[in-house]
Amino acid sequence: MEFQHELVIPDEGLPFKFFLFEGSQGNYVREKHWHTSIEIFAVMEGSLTFYLNDEKHPLKAGELMIINSNEVHSIDSPEENHTAVLQIPLKQFEDYFTAHRFIRFAANEQETDSQLWRLIREMYKLYGKRGTGYEFKIRSFYYDVLYLLVNHYRLDEAGEQEVRHSRRLDALARITSYMREHYQEELKLTDVANMFGYSDAYLSRMFQKYANVNFKTYLQDIRMTYAYRELLNSDKTISQIAMDNGFSSSRAFTREFQKRYGILPSEVEREK
Fold it and tell me: Ranges for the HTH araC/xylS-type domain (predicted)?
């Protein structure tokens, strides 16, 4: 399988991740990938094309696309566009799962799609301004989105083949969820493999096959994501940030940071 698992971490202080699609300037392709979160793309301006399970879905302004958990998809963005992306952790829907920790959402009537699109547009406006108390208002729109999804988009049944496909990816998703919850600890491949009943070799192959990276790289991705957030939003020292996020030393953190971002952590601190 030639696709990657995308790491999705909610925005700080909010139960979801919300952002402007990175292909807004055009001439951009996001290769095949998957994630456990539910994802909604809502095009504000311009257009782009989704490939969902190899089916082509062109989108223009005023339209949206719902990506289910563990659905492999890619995106072609040749022209400029403004597209809001809402990523919802799967656990938000625990009370509505079918068997096997499974839930699916499907396209709905145009009137309902328009209603959902307008809610995300309002979230987009609030998120851009981030005025006083915006977190309260954006949450209200977010919960309206969840209400629409479970009442108008949720499928009560799913095909057996679809469930089997999701199970294969869900096995790795449970492991990566555990890693996100314990990334500050010393996590070793052997310990994680034993915890989930796998051999070291099998777990290594699972990461390479379904996440397209090895165990260590995936763990470093998690640690760096949280460390970078702290670097931007806290007054902690670089050494403290390194230790709090699972790095063995500030030197190891600095080395990894420079390799990924091309600058030193201290340069980010000076720009705050």
Answer: 173-271
